[in-house]
Every structure is written in structure tokens, then in C-alpha cells.
Design goal:
This protein is an alpha/beta fold and about 325 residues long. Helix content is about 40%, strand content about 20%. It folds into two domains: about 210 residues, Rossmann fold (3-Layer(aba) Sandwich), CATH 3.40.50.720; about 80 residues, Alpha-Beta Complex (UDP-galactose 4-epimerase, domain 1), CATH 3.90.25.10. Helix 4 packs parallel to helix 5.
């Protein structure tokens, strides 16, 4: 990456966003972080995510809603659009809100960038765009035409907006399809965090299905490296270009194995309650990483065993070891 430039990061108080901001500041960039503290999970959690950043003079935080408020773009040389309304299952209850937060807001970000003459954009998409019909491992050239939740549809729509903008304007956009990112500061609603909390407290884990569903889990440090590599790639990309790239962990992990790994790291037994599969959940995610390796030099370094141990250590340091 050449001389540091000023970055705008949307979703800066979130799990991935806060880690990305820290990495950018560590590399010498001035960073403007934007977040609206969406009520999907507690404001105090997000404020804790920002605590270290707010003490750094290279970081400035702006509380704003990307879907409605003007973006602070003065002096900005590149944008990382990581803000989104998250969650597959909650999107079934309020799809309209997901469309506004994830599609309208994304179009506004791209439009603000082209009006301000900021060509470089990294957009956080999702493995959910592949749905249930894509053959594994999921390759970026798969059609991705059958999303099975409103959340997945909004992320695919965001990619299509990127394609349209790159066709019409001199933007350089990379859409990163994140595969279940986890690690310290992970959102409390996600499986690894939720299972860890339940098992640590001696409560039953609700396991939907028979435990055979599989996910490709990506440790946060690998995800951040992928984001930074994509940002660097936008420096030399052609104007009017858009790319879709997978950011995954490189391994399929069964649900029952995941629960067992968490229980082992906690030194406890997992008590499991079985429930039917949930609507909107895919049976499998599996990232084909060949294109990301070629384009970004991306290779995940943290396997699931090490990643779960790291997460459990953070959980116990943050919440205390449960008696």
C-alpha cells in the first residue's frame, strides 16, 4: 500500500468494522468511523468496541445513519462500507427495514463516493448470497440467484448496485463475501458467542437440525487481512471495475463439532436441546478461496480449534469465568 490516505469506515462500531479501523490506524491512516448504533444489539457493546480507537488522535467518530445522513467525506481517499443491518433470522420479521439499511444505504454510499470523486470502495457482502442451490465449494462466478432470506437478498442486491455503479461511473469496487466471521468482540447473537455464553453458564444450547449442517468460519484477523488486501487492490484496479471475492476460513465445520469444540475450550459439558431447522438458514457454506488467493494473496491462517480457544479466552476475560 502506498502513502497512507484518509479512510471512511461505515459500521465502525461493529465487530468487523472496529477491528478494521484499528488495523487501518495501526498502518498510519487517518480514519473517520461512522455508525448509527442500530438497536439490533446493545449500544454499550459497540461503545466498548470503540474504546481503544477513541483514545487515538488518528481516529474520529461520527454518529450517523448512512441511509439518511450526509457522509463526512472531506479529505477521504477511500471508503470501506461495512455498515449493515445483520442477521438472517431477524430479517424474516422486518424485511423492509433490511432493504432500507442494506440496499438504499449502499446505493447512497456509492452515490456519495462518485459525487465526491472517491473511486476506491470495499463493500462488505456475505456468503449468504449463495443460498442453498450453489454447488460446494462456492465460487464467485456461481449465479447466486436464489437467496433464501431477505438478508441474503439485500446483500446480493448491494452487489448488483455495485455492478451498476461500476458500469456507469469511474469507481473501483471490491465486494467481499464474508463467511461467518468470529473472534473477540463477535456479535452476541451469533452462534459461537451465543453457544459459548450458554455453555459457560450451564444452560442448554438450542441446536437446530441434527448437527450435520456445516459452516465455513473465518477468524477475525484473517478477515481483516482480506479487507486490507482488497483495499490495497483498489489502488491499482481499473476505473469502472467491480470484483466479487470470498473471504473464508478454508474449512467446513459441522455444527455438532463446533459445539463440542466450544465445550472443550470451556472445560464444560454441553447440554443440547434439539429443534427443527429454521427457515432462512442454509445447510452449508463453503468458500472457494482460489480467486481471493490469486487476487489478494489471501490465505487464512487461524484454524477453527485455535480460533475457538482464542474466542473463549476473550469471553472469559471480558465476562469472567462462570462458576
Amino acid at each position: 500500500m502506498s502513502a497512507p490516505v484518509k479512510m471512511l469506515v461505515t459500521g465502525a462500531a461493529g465487530f468487523i468494522g472496529s477491528h478494521v479501523c484499528e488495523a487501518l490506524v495501526a498502518r498510519g491512516h487517518a480514519v473517520v468511523g461512522l455508525d448509527n448504533f442500530d438497536a439490533f444489539y446493545g449500544r454499550t457493546v459497540k461503545e466498548r468496541n470503540l474504546k481503544g480507537l477513541l483514545a487515538n488522535r488518528a481516529f474520529r467518530f461520527v454518529e450517523a445513519d448512512v441511509a439518511r445522513d450526509p457522509l463526512p467525506l472531506e479529505g477521504v481517499g477511500a471508503m470501506l462500507h461495512l455498515a449493515a443491518k445483520p442477521g438472517v433470522r431477524p430479517s424474516l420479521e422486518d424485511p423492509g427495514a433490511y432493504m432500507e439499511a442494506n440496499v438504499t444505504a449502499t446505493a447512497r454510499v456509492f452515490d456519495a463516493a462518485r459525487r465526491a470523486g472517491i473511486p476506491r470502495i470495499v463493500f462488505g457482502s456475505s456468503s449468504s448470497v449463495y443460498g442453498n442451490s450453489t454447488p460446494a465449494p462456492f465460487a464467485e462466478d456461481a449465479p447466486a440467484l436464489q437467496p433464501i432470506s431477505p438478508y441474503a437478498a439485500t446483500k446480493r442486491a448491494g452487489e448488483l448496485v455495485a455492478i451498476a455503479f461500476a458500469h456507469l461511473y469511474p469507481l473501483r469496487i471490491i465486494c467481499l463475501r464474508f463467511f461467518t466471521v468470529y473472534g473477540p468482540r463477535q456479535r452476541p447473537d451469533l452462534a459461537i458467542h451465543k453457544f459459548t455464553d450458554l455453555i459457560a453458564r450451564g444452560q442448554a444450547v438450542r441446536m437446530h437440525g441434527d448437527g450435520s449442517s456445516e459452516r465455513d468460519y473465518t477468524y477475525i484477523s484473517d478477515c481483516v487481512e482480506g479487507v486490507l488486501a482488497a483495499l490495497a487492490r483498489t489502488e491499482k484496479a481499473a476505473d469502472g471495475s467491480v470484483e466479487m471475492l470470498n473471504i473464508g476460513g478454508g474449512e467446513r465445520v459441522r455444527l455438532d463439532r463446533l459445539i463440542a469444540l466450544i465445550a472443550s475450550a470451556l472445560g464444560r459439558e454441553a447440554r443440547i436441546e434439539r429443534y427443527p431447522d429454521q427457515p432462512g438458514d442454509v445447510r452449508l457454506t463453503d468458500a472457494d478461496l482460489h480467486r481471493a488467493e490469486q487476487a489478494l494473496g489471501y490465505r487464512p491462517r487461524v484454524g477453527i480449534e485455535e480460533g475457538i480457544r482464542n474466542f473463549v479466552r476473550w469471553y472469559e476475560e471480558t465476562h469472567g469465568r462462570q462458576s
